[in-house]
Amino acid sequence: MENNAATNFNWSCKNTWKRSAKNTGWCLLGCAIGDLGTILFFQLTKIPFPVIGIMILAIINGLITSIILETIVLMKQELDFQKAFKTAIGMSFISMISMEVTMNLTDYLLTGGAILTWWVIPIMLLVGFLTPWPYNYWRLKKFGIACH
Fold first, then answer.
1. Measured in whole angstroms, how far is the alpha carbon of residue 75 from the centre of its chain?
2. Would residue 14 count as lying in a domain?
3. How far apart are alpha carbons 83 and 44 in whole angstroms?
4. Are 61 and 41 in contact (CB under 8 A)?
5. Between the CA of residue 109 and those of 29, 69, 89, 106, 116, what are the distances in Å?
6. At what angle do helices 51-76 and 81-111 cross, to 10 degrees?
7. Cα distance between residue 68 and residue 81, in whole Å
8. How far is the C-alpha of 49 from the C-alpha of 142, rounded, in Å?
9. Range of the domain at 129
10. What is the distance, to the nearest Å, from the Cα of residue 60 to the centroid of all Cα atoms in its chain?
11. Is residue 12 part of a domain?
12. CB atoms within 10 A of CB 145
């Protein structure tokens, strides 16, 4: 017995891919501000701190800045703070976590971790964007749920 919803799902809607790309881009911007900012801070200040500690802080700060940015964007769309905050956390937290983990894993695999260079940042951002994008498409297509 086949699941009819699964067999009828459409992965080829260009409008949904565009909208989900926009949503994923906002999420990436928010995550990148906190994540890359944290790594850059430790890189510039040369504060002795374990690489894993820096990466955990970068992930946490990326999640926080993404939630803040998405809450602001939603409030500009006429939502009150409480509803905007709950929406930002509820609808995109899986995207943010997957984005953060893959960005930091990419950094770790390519540089040894917590090192920003001119060539690693675009790769981190690309991997961070591509990882949650299909999930965001799926949520938008199946449930009509988007953050922006």
1. 19
2. no
3. 38
4. no
5. 22, 28, 29, 5, 13
6. 150
7. 11
8. 43
9. 19-143
10. 12
11. no
12. 14
Which amino acid appears at position 140 of this protein? L
Which of 115, 110, 111, 112 has the alpha carbon at shortest distance from 58?
Answer: 115
Residue 7 in any domain: the answer is no
Give the 3-state secondary structure of residue 8. Answer: coil
Structurally, how many domains does the chain consist of?
1
- Span of 5-9, 87-91, 122-126 with lowest mean pLDDT: 5-9
Q: Is 46 inside any structural domain?
A: yes
Euclidean distance between CA atoms 12 and 110, whole angstroms: 33
pLDDT band (50, 70, 90) for residue 3:
low
pLDDT at 146 exceeding the cut of 70: no
pLDDT at 132 over 70: yes
Q: What is the DSSP string of 10-68?
A: -S--HHHHHHHHHHHHHHHHHHHHHHHHHHHHHHHH-----HHHHHHHHHHHHHHHHHH
Per-residue tokens: 23: 């949503």
What are the tens digits of pLDDT across the range 31-89? 999 999 999 999 999 999 999 999 999 999 999 999 999 899 889 988 999 998 988 88
What is the pLDDT confidence band of residue 99, given thresholds at 50, 70 and 90? Answer: very high
